[in-house]
Amino acid sequence: MATFKQRVRELTRRSCGRSLNEVVKQLRVYVLGWKAYFRLADTPGVWSDLDQWIRHRVRAIQLKQWARGTTTYRELRQRGASSDVAAQVAAHTRRWWRNSGMLLHRVLNLRWADELGIPRLC
Fold first, then answer.
1. What residues contact residue 100 under an 8 Å CB cut-off, 6+ apart?
2. What is the arithmetic mean of pLDDT over 10-34?
3. CA angle at residue 110 from 32 to 80, to 5 degrees?
């Protein structure tokens, strides 16, 4: 478990200068291989927690790539966020981890993750 999380941290670093699609492409290969190897494990809670944690990390990368409050606000509004939610997230643009776990998960949800190609573990 610790090895898996460490490798995902390496693949999803926010300071690599890669596009989100490139990050997801590399992450997809690793996660699908890991999932195939441990697919017989009967631990749905662990799978679910890891799945949420991976999406949380990817949302943080997306938020950092938007970089400025005006860009964040515009992108969230285009994705269907209310103006209040978009304004709250845009006001605290540099709080990537906190925002990606609170308000942002309502806008950048499972459908968004599926469109990016992030594999589900559960």
1. 56, 57, 59, 60, 62, 63, 108
2. 90
3. 145
